Automatic annotation (TrEMBL):
It holds the Pfam family CPSase_L_D2. It comes from the Bacteria. NCBIfam families: accC, PRK08591.1. SUPFAM superfamilies: Glutathione synthetase ATP-binding domain-like, PreATP-grasp domain, Rudiment single hybrid motif. The lineage of its organism: Bacteria, Pseudomonadati, Bacteroidota, Cytophagia, Cytophagales. This is Acetyl-CoA carboxylase, biotin carboxylase subunit. Residues 2-447 form the Biotin carboxylation domain. GO terms for biological process: malonyl-CoA biosynthetic process. Keywords: ATP-binding, Biotin, Ligase, Magnesium, Metal-binding, Nucleotide-binding. It comes from Thermoflexibacter ruber. GO terms for molecular function: ATP binding; ligase activity; metal ion binding. Residues 121-318 form the ATP-grasp domain. PROSITE patterns: ATP_GRASP, BC, CPSASE_1, CPSASE_2.
Length: 500
């Protein structure tokens, strides 16, 4: 069935991103917004917009029944969840279908299986996908778990089955730490997910996080769109992503891609999804989990493949067969994304609140900015603190890096500290340039004083912005004192006076 009107159950950059593709496809768009987002660009962009509630997400963007009701009342025939919020809630996908609407995403069944790291591991195991050595069941008996940890060999990692965003994860270096870290992981997991079940696996030292983008249709066809390297993280959350990875060989790329397709098939997946792997120094790869939605970092894949992933999601949701064949897909060029988040890298990446006093994104060849803010807007404290995604594209990795350095320099943000200074430090680091880095980049190479000079640079940037604003003002008033423009004005005033 053709989708004619799409409600986007999200906010900010991703709501805009989705609506842009929908509009190109001739689909009407409906935005929802909380009271904190009344003046947001995604609200202005949509054909229709409805306030869904108070600022806290529980009272707005997570209100499943209310959102479905709005969709029905406005005659929307589909709902796109974006990422975060309701995107990986099987019950939401189920409710949308029960209301007679199309959920732009996978079936409740796939979301359910892949939503549990333990169930996901079991499903992948049945298809012979390599897994990190460890338990495939939640821990019930601590002594049993200790014994198992001994067998696996320290260091080990405790993980929350319902985990996400790096929460509930604890590294245990030796047996003495085991019980304490276990208690911490369980209480963190219970608090964050309402589910305290945890399991353990081998902690891969020097790990790289590499993920594969897949697209599957409702007729059993699945293709992979190569990898994204996402090893630059803080608090187990990504900050710099790129495609392709600089360390994979064509053989390993193909093997990982084929594994990702199998993972998708293991849960009858349709839609866009991402299969995450951890890769060790010897390039052995192990399945971590599958994210059953569009990822924040999807643009780098779009840049190197030329595929509009949101458009594909919509076509798949309509029930159309994939027209993309695996053999047609090719990597062309190189793309890097940096996440511009409101936080202070010099202060342990502490989240920042405040107003975007200056907000001027860079422009020019090979640059894409996906954002959801405008100059003068406050960053609401209720949601994720990402302000924008800055993406560069070029023929080679070196050029994409150079372009990113230029773009970061041009990005003018004042009023708030952002991760841009940290990202510039990463891109200028020889470990990044050589491709020899892992998820420990921050611990290994980064110290706050590395960007102390960046703070100075920021001050210089602020000064430059103020000077340019001043020059603008002076040159405007200069036109009024030096002749031509004011003369025309006086003349027209005179004319008006004369004939009125
Ligand atoms: P979440 O769902 O909370 O993001 P993941 O399982 O995706 O958790 O892991 C988050 C990050 O933690 C990964 O990007 C990877 O860098 C690291 N990680 C996960 N499992 C392991 C492991 N067994 N060994 C080393 N690092 C790991």
């Amino acid at each position: 069935m053709k989708i004619k009107k799409l409600l986007v159950a999200n906010r900010g950059e991703i709501a805009l991103r989705v609506m842009r593709s929908a509009r190109e496809m001739g689909i009407q768009t409906v935005a929802i917004y909380s009271e904190a987002d009344r003046f947001s660009p995604h609200v202005k962009y949509a054909d229709e917009a409805v306030c869904v509630g108070a600022p806290p997400s529980a009272q707005s963007y997570l209100q499943m029944d209310k959102i479905i009701e709005i969709a029905k009342n406005l005659g929307a025939d589909a709902i796109h969840p974006g990422y975060g919020f309701l995107s990986e809630r099987a019950v939401f996908s189920q409710k949308v279908a029960e209301a007679g609407l199309i959920f732009v995403g996978p079936s409740p069944y796939s979301i359910e299986i892949m939503g549990s790291k333990i169930e996901a591991k079991k499903a992948a195991d049945r298809f012979g996908i390599p897994l990190v050595p460890g338990l495939k069941e939640a821990i019930i008996d601590i002594n049993e778990a200790k014994k198992k940890a001994q067998e696996i060999g320290y260091p080990i990692l405790i993980k929350a089955s319902a985990g996400g965003g790096g929460k509930g994860m604890r590294i245990v270096n030796n047996e003495n730490e085991f019980e304490e870290q276990m208690q911490r992981a369980i209480s963190e997991a219970s608090a964050a997910f309402g589910d305290g079940s945890v399991f353990i696996e081998k902690y891969i030292t020097s790990p790289k996080h590499i993920e594969i983008q897949v697209l599957g249709d409702q007729h059993g066809n699945v293709v992979y769109l190569f990898e994204r390297e996402c090893s630059i993280q803080r608090r187990h959350q990504k900050l710099v992503e790129e495609a392709p990875s600089s360390c994979l060989t064509p053989e390993i790329r193909k093997a990982m891609g084929e594994c990702a397709v199998l993972v998708a098939k293991s849960c009858n997946y349709y839609g866009a999804g991402t299969v995450e792997f951890v890769v060790d120094e010897a390039l052995n790869f192990y399945f971590l989990e599958m994210n059953t939605r569009l990822q924040v970092e999807h643009p780098v894949t779009e840049m190197i493949t030329g595929v509009d992933l949101v458009k594909q999601q919509i076509l798949i949701a309509e029930g159309q067969p994939l027209t993309i064949k695996q053999e047609d897909l090719q990597i062309k060029g190189h793309s890097i994304e940096v996440r511009v988040c409101a936080e202070d890298p010099a202060n342990n990446f502490l989240p920042e609140v405040g107003k975007l006093q200056t907000y001027r994104p860079p422009r020019g060849v090979g640059i894409r900015v996906d954002d959801g803010f405008e100059e003068g807007m406050e960053i609401p404290i209720y949601y994720d603190n990402m302000i924008a995604k800055l993406i560069t594209y070029a023929d080679t990795r070196t050029e994409a890096i150079q372009r990113m350095m230029r773009a970061i320099d041009e990005f003018q943000i004042t009023g708030i500290q952002t991760t841009l200074s940290f990202c510039k430090y990463v891109l200028g680091h020889e470990a990044f340039a050589s491709g020899k880095f892992d998820t420990k980049f921050v611990e290994k190479y980064f110290k706050p004083e590395h960007i102390a000079t960046q703070a100075q640079a920021d001050e210089e940037k602020i000064a430059a912005v103020l000077v340019s604003k001043l020059v603008e003002k002076i040159s405007k008033s200069a036109t009024f004192t030096n002749g031509t423009a004011p003369a025309r004005q006086v003349k027209s005033n005179w004319k008006n006076r004369r004939y009125n």
